[in-house]
Amino acid sequence: MAYPHTETHVKIYALGDICQVDGTWKKSECRGGLGLYYFNTNTLEKLMGRCNLRRGISPPHAELEALIWAMQCMLNTGKLTMVFQMDYSDVVKMVSKPKKWSAFSLLLEEVDRCKRRFNSFSIMQIPMTENTKANNLAQNARALLSDVYYVHSLFQQFGFPSYFRDRGS
């Protein structure tokens, strides 16, 4: 007799260093929120971060600010081969063809400056349902009344890096 089982399917859109990014914006609120969720599919290393700032002009501005912030965070942590994933399709288009988006030229120039510092850079759109961690971080940051800015490492077991866990095995 066969027993029913549950399978979990995780969609992997890329391999290696991946940084999921989101920016949140609400016209009725004075702050915007930025969120990032980094993971490496090979080492299982994870980082998460959130930041809030004065609300920008529009949702696309918030998304671009989130991308710039995430790029700077990855560069500051030495992650130079990166796939960025966002659920906001216009930002992916803006980065691919910046000349068509002149209203965002200042932010796109900063994206380009950051891009040139990576050994390998790519950006891709993912479904909103696959970007929930970055989205939740951004929404939580936006809701805070005080300034918040952090990027934090997540360890798999007991809060220790794998090289401590694997010693003495």
From TrEMBL:
CDD domains hit by this protein: RNase_H_like
Signal peptide annotation: none
Protein name, entry field: RNase H type-1 domain-containing protein
Domain RNase H type-1 per the UniProt entry, residue ranges: 21-141
Residue runs in coiled coils: none
Cited Gene3D superfamilies: Ribonuclease H-like superfamily/Ribonuclease H (3.30.420.10)
Classification via PANTHER family: POLYNUCLEOTIDYL TRANSFERASE, RIBONUCLEASE H-LIKE SUPERFAMILY PROTEIN, POLYNUCLEOTIDYL TRANSFERASE, RIBONUCLEASE H-LIKE SUPERFAMILY PROTEIN-RELATED
GO MF term set: nucleic acid binding; RNA-DNA hybrid ribonuclease activity
InterPro entries (UniProt xref): RNase_H-like_dom_plant, RNaseH-like_sf, RNaseH_domain, RNaseH_sf
Superkingdom assignment: Eukaryota
